[in-house]
Amino acid sequence: MLTSPWIESRARITPHRIAIECGEETLDYAELERRARNVAAALATRGIQPGDVCAALLPNGLHFAVLLHAADLLGATFLPLNTRLTPRELTYPLGDSAARLLLHGDDELGEKALLTAGSAPGVEAQSIAALVGHPDVELPQRPQDPVSPFAILYTSGTTGRPKGACLSRSNFVASATASALHCGVLPEDRWLACMPLFHVGGLSILVRSVLYGTAAVVHERFDPVAVDAALDRDGITLLSLTATMLARLLEVRGSRSAPGSLRCVLLGGGPCPAPLIADAAKLGFPIMPTYGLTEACSQVATRLVDEAEPTALSPLPGVEIRIVDDAGKSMPSTHPGEIWVRGETVMRSYLTQRGDNPRPDGWLRTGDIGTLDAQGRLYVHDRRSDLIISGGENVYPAEVEAVLAEHPAIAEVAVAGVPDASFGQRPAAWFTTRSGTSDPSTEELTHHCRERLAGFKIPVSFRAVGQLPRTSAGKVLRRELRKIE
Amino acid sequence: MLTSPWIESRARITPHRIAIECGEETLDYAELERRARNVAAALATRGIQPGDVCAALLPNGLHFAVLLHAADLLGATFLPLNTRLTPRELTYPLGDSAARLLLHGDDELGEKALLTAGSAPGVEAQSIAALVGHPDVELPQRPQDPVSPFAILYTSGTTGRPKGACLSRSNFVASATASALHCGVLPEDRWLACMPLFHVGGLSILVRSVLYGTAAVVHERFDPVAVDAALDRDGITLLSLTATMLARLLEVRGSRSAPGSLRCVLLGGGPCPAPLIADAAKLGFPIMPTYGLTEACSQVATRLVDEAEPTALSPLPGVEIRIVDDAGKSMPSTHPGEIWVRGETVMRSYLTQRGDNPRPDGWLRTGDIGTLDAQGRLYVHDRRSDLIISGGENVYPAEVEAVLAEHPAIAEVAVAGVPDASFGQRPAAWFTTRSGTSDPSTEELTHHCRERLAGFKIPVSFRAVGQLPRTSAGKVLRRELRKIE
Prior knowledge:
The structure is a homodimer.
Chain A (H helix, E strand, L loop, with lengths): L5 H8 L4 E5 L2 E4 H17 L7 E5 L4 H13 L2 E4 L6 H11 L3 E4 L3 H11 L5 E4 L21 E6 L9 E5 H15 L6 E4 L6 H13 L2 E4 L5 H10 L4 E5 H11 L10 E5 L5 H9 L4 E7 L4 E5 L11 E2 L4 E5 L12 E6 L21 E9 L5 E6 L4 E3 L2 E3 L1 H9 L4 E11 L3 E10 L8 H9 L11 E3 L13 H4 L4
Helix pairs in contact in A: 1-2, 2-3, 4-5, 6-7, 8-9
């Protein structure tokens, strides 16, 4: 699967299968290849060589998929940028990766791209519309290099400075095949992508589709009404969502059960409250909570379809997981420790390895906290950066959140540490209230927790908010919570 | 997927899924692993080391699967022997592979094994029943070597002397993943194995099941009535057959349509007559004719589920195919030539590479004849060894057979060359007659051919026979045809 560009192999084997649907447009693999060759030829005349970095500031859509494959045809590296960043923020990944071109559309993002390129030395802004329709040019034939970077993805940066994860072609192939064996794959699969394609979860849908010969149904943005309609109308078999998206989808869906075609809902972007999974399961949604990492090409561990326990995640075939203490020693499996991950899906290194995430023996230190049971199933407790240490005791926000999520009046909840003179930190909670119910009182919530948690884990304050601050990937921005008065 | 023995990884991830069903017995993966560890411990006490060859003369059944995984746990090489060979024939692969143990059951095959071991120097016969129930012993922990031989399979030997194809763990993993992407895989899959497990087609079902975490439903032998019943009763989703087996199954099935659970019928072991495929398709059987090779770990090219043309076979992902002339030059795709195959599924070499099948640049010269169309789809014409050269013209038996198979009175047909003073060779035909019809005359069949074939392709004789001579894999033994008077 690595000897020629993916779109070339795929268009040869199944030229007339649907590759991508977006809005009113549908491309089969032959047409997607034709457009990608077209753009690749235009990029080649602009001097793009194998190994050069082509950045893109593009919304979800056909241009994104065409450019992805054009870069692959040239042996170039694709750098999809987070469209929600400011021009000032965007200059960092462009400079760090020494990108040469910044491809953009002719919408307001195009203006942002022009502004960005103006302040990024050596980066030329290029409208992708001007590349389409380039006359056919013979592209140089060269075998693809399986270990050179296929894409660079900057991690979402909820903590510290973004880092460029270099993902190779073989990382993506390993991820696609492991996911297929874990979740199943059928030639008639149709995977709905309503998450940003610039994140690894969305990008993987495009790459898996071309490797599987299946269809990607791309929505420009997450709209729960549109997703709801697509489920019933478009024969969707696979769906990737965050917990927040799932909650909004269920609100729209009401009591209508999941369509029979839907085989798997991958739920990523952080822990999901168990009551939400239960609500979805009641409607027949095949929810598969997933622990994923940009650095491991998305899925690391995913609940199996026949797994009874909703939060028990099984490692994908070929992925190894260890739980390690601060001294780097493997923990007894029942004790929470740092999650380390190894396997063919894991990147070799960040673009500029800064020494803050060394990988002895190929192990990626994730910074996340979890346990493994005797059967090797992973339970994710929290992001290490979110760990609250209170009076010498560790408090894992996810545990407190799970308890509060059981309260009938609470829709969404996040817990973070706040400074405390006596204990160093104390947990505090921010929540949204279910529609049709009034805000519960602090007394009521404290009482609710007291029945279920040790004293040091009970939040010192509970604040009702309109919505929780989140990254574009759907992760709660805990440092932003503390700014809410 | 290569870091530990397959059964160990699988039993850890999905211990309670069904691994294998055979007759009244059902084993889940935990129990299959327990039995395999048991036998592995017993083999270790008998001195079996990594790299040693463990031969097996076993019928389809649980013992076969247990021994396969026991060998893998020890890093030993598994040599499944064709149970239909005579003791005299069996001594060749045992000697050629330097096998140390010959495992057998306590049936009549056991007696054959004892006879065989008696005349094979250095080979000890061992009843597998005596190994079961061995006390648990800690097995040495060592990483599996992906390129060392996992199994040695002697090719069926329709021509010349059998050769031992050395198939590595990575060959099998590549084959399993490529097949999954080509044909689809679901966690609830149940693959019916009614072909001999000692051939690559049957063995692959066991290996794929453990890699996929799916169930193998094993029949001791092909019985069309039993297969027919299993299709309706046992939720079979995948089925591997030869053309002859399919014909017999359809005879039993009558007008009952295929069950909705059946997703894919892999049809291997040689070309299949188009009318048979059409008959099966009318009943809703999803027939996927397959070109496979022992040397390439089974499937090389398989019809896609959405392929309109019944004999157009698409290469599996990652498999490369070339058509080459006698001088080793790539042919224009419309001209028949030798099929060469390359990819991660292809063995590195035969056990004793005899120089009669060199593999420049990793290309396996198959000896088979085919063409590729512009889309890269393979059409298999014939086994090269069966090519009839008549008066300087090439006659491909499969082409003549396909024409004769269209005759309403003919059930099965085979064509081979017979010596001819004037032309060197001339084609001749042997056939079986459909039940309820009388043998067609030579005049009638000659007339039938004359309307459809050039003169030099028309058989000089047509003989009605009770059945066609076949190998245990279902291939017609053409050299035996010529002995039929």
